[in-house]
Amino acid sequence: MITAIVLIKTSVDRIPEIAESIAALDNVSEVFSVTGTYDLIAMVRVKDHDDLADVIPGRISKIPGVEATDTHVAFRTYSQHDLEAAFAIGLDS
After folding, report:
1. Do the domain assignments include residue 93?
2. Which helix (H) or strand (E) holds 42?
3. Staple partner for 39: which of 10, 61, 64, 82, CB 3.0–4.6 Å?
4. Are 39 and 10 in contact (CB under 8 A)?
């Protein structure tokens, strides 16, 4: 599974509608409204790199009001949930 973090600049007056449109796309697991340089951050999860082209420039960038995207592909995922699961292996609850 490939995870991409997509930073998105939008028309400021349409952030909620654009976020909902992005969140409704296949392969988009979450969309966050954020402060800072970008308006939204979308988490995209796909099976292979070619699928990123279908989702990001193929669908996200074509949503009316999306002005620009900046994509970061994750090498690994680290989370508290993953660490707890790793240390719990073989231990009785």
Report:
1. no
2. strand 40-46
3. 10
4. yes
Q: How far is the C-alpha of 8 from the C-alpha of 4, rounded, in Å? A: 12
Kindly state whether residue 36 falls inside one of the protein's structural domains: yes
Query: pLDDT, tens digit, for every residue of 46-88?
Result: 999 999 999 999 999 999 999 999 999 999 877 765 556 556 5
Tokens standing for 13? 């007056």
Distance CA 14, CA 84 (A): 39
Instruction: For residue 28, give the CATH number of its domain.
Output: 3.30.70.920
Per-residue model confidence as pLDDT tens digits over 7-36: 999 999 999 999 999 999 999 999 999 999
Domain range for 64 is 2-88
CB 4 within 8 A of CB 44: yes
